[in-house]
């Protein structure tokens, strides 16, 4: 939105005299003696996007922004996310989570890192808690975390069906979700609880039990890593057919041989009749991708990459033949709706100018704009993190 205010007498507070003010997207873009309509072009940077496809900047709803892991002792703690990791992956909005280690990875650190990424130019939110219950929060409860802290939009990731979980009960999961729900309702946020679903035999049964026996709506939960194996995918499809949300992890393929790519799983789910609006892709970036043998011993470890989000979207479009309109939803409008980020996820008037510019032919990232600022232009990274 560009507005031109003519002929006002300005005290800035220093006296500037009679000037014109150009207001661009809620900010003062220029102050000058006479800004005529013809002259506005002096203040406008024109970019020719011929040959480019413009889509919403991607939302990555599950990233270990402070690093995660540590399942192979301290030296296997994964590093923090860098701004350029996001930019190279076309990501302009990130949701940070903690993960397995809720002792050396803290909520204060998570919040500080989220603020840092936002200062560096993208938009970063986070979730309250880690794998374990009782949940370690910032303010004393999940409800007040969501209600009082701008950046905190939900809870999680709480682990179930995993040897690394705290083996939560149905009641504990229900209590966390009710707090997240109330916090969300009172603050106008999503309050969605991300549920990490591990390799365990129980799969989604604990979650289904909570939904069957409480008044909590199924969409209060976002179970993630549903593409971990065939059995969990099957359970996830049944869960989605009940109306549940499901999240596919794009970086997971590197972690375990029997994991399934998000692009393939998306195709399977759509063929099974799951509405695309219930499906999200997230990267699980900077998380550890540990491999355990059947006795639970660690046999390998890698770090998830946020760029996998774009790669899987590209594969879903190019290889699985899903229309671009549809496939984009899983990391743009769907997370914006599910997590309640009204400024994000759509190229639309009044939304944040978070834009991704793609080469039409090759479907490669040519440019990234975050909140109206060029971050990557003509494939050149213009903005890096403070210490990059
Ligand atoms: Zn997880």
From TrEMBL:
Localization per Swiss-Prot or TrEMBL: Cytoplasm
Q: Which domain of life, per UniProt?
A: Bacteria
Enzyme Commission number(s): 3.4.19.-
Enzyme class at the top of the EC tree: hydrolase
UniProt cross-references to Pfam families, sorted A to Z: Amidohydro_1
Kindly give the InterPro entries that the UniProt entry links to this protein.
Answer: Amidohydro-rel, Metallo-dep_Hydrolases_sf, Pept_M38_dipep
State the Gene Ontology terms under molecular function. beta-aspartyl-peptidase activity
Report what the Swiss-Prot or TrEMBL entry states about this protein's PTMs: Carboxylation allows a single lysine to coordinate two zinc ions.
- Glycoprotein in keyword set: no
Quote the record's cofactor note.
Answer: Binds 2 Zn(2+) ions per subunit.
Provide the coiled-coil residue spans. Answer: none
- Tell me its cofactors: Zn(2+)
Domain Amidohydrolase-related intervals: 53-375
Keywords of this entry: Hydrolase, Metal-binding, Metalloprotease, Protease, Zinc
In UniProt terms, what function does this protein have?
Catalyzes the hydrolytic cleavage of a subset of L-isoaspartyl (L-beta-aspartyl) dipeptides. Used to degrade proteins damaged by L-isoaspartyl residues formation.
Query: What family does this chain come from, according to its entry?
Result: Belongs to the peptidase M38 family.
Name this polypeptide is given: Isoaspartyl dipeptidase
The source organism is: Evansella tamaricis
Q: Which gene encodes it?
A: iadA
């Amino acid at each position: 939105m560009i507005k031109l205010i003519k002929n006002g007498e300005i005290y800035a507070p220093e006296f500037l005299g009679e000037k014109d003010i150009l207001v661009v997207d809620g900010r003062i873009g220029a102050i000058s003696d006479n800004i005529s309509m013809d002259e506005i072009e002096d203040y406008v940077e024109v970019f020719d996007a011929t040959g480019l496809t413009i889509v919403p900047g991607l939302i990555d709803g599950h990233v270990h922004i402070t690093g995660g892991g540590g399942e192979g002792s301290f030296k296997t703690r994964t590093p923090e996310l860098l701004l350029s990791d996001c930019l190279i992956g076309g990501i302009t909005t990130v949701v940070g989570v903690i993960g397995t280690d809720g002792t050396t990875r803290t909520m204060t650190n998570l919040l500080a890192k989220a603020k840092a990424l936002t200062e560096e130019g993208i938009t970063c939110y986070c979730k309250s808690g880690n794998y374990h219950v009782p949940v370690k929060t910032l303010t004393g409860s999940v409800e007040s975390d969501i209600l009082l802290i701008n950046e905190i939009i939900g809870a999680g990731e709480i682990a179930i069906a995993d040897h690394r979980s705290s083996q939560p009960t149905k009641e504990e999961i229900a209590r966390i979700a009710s707090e997240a729900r109330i916090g969300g309702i009172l603050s106008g946020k999503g309050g969605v609880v991300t549920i990490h679903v591990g390799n365990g035999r129980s799969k989604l049964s604990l979650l289904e039990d909570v939904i069957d026996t409480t008044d909590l709506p199924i969409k209060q939960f976002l179970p993630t890593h549903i593409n971990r194996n065939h059995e969990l995918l099957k359970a996830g499809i049944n869960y989605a057919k009940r109306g549940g949300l499901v999240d596919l992890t794009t970086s997971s393929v590197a972690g375990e041989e029997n994991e399934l790519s998000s692009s393939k799983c998306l195709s399977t789910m759509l063929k099974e009749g799951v509405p695309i609006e219930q499906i999200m892709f997230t990267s699980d970036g900077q998380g550890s991708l540990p491999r355990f043998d059947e006795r639970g011993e660690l046999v390998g470890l890698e770090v998830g990459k946020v760029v996998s989000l774009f790669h899987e979207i590209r594969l879903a479009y190019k290889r699985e033949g899903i229309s671009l309109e549809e496939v984009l939803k899983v990391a743009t409008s769907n997370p914006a709706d599910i997590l309640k980020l009204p400024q994000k996820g759509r190229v639309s008037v009044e939304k944040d100018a978070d834009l991704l510019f793609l080469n039409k032919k090759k479907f490669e990232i040519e440019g990234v704009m975050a909140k109206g600022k060029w971050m990557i232009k003509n494939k050149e990274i213009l903005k890096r993190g403070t210490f990059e």
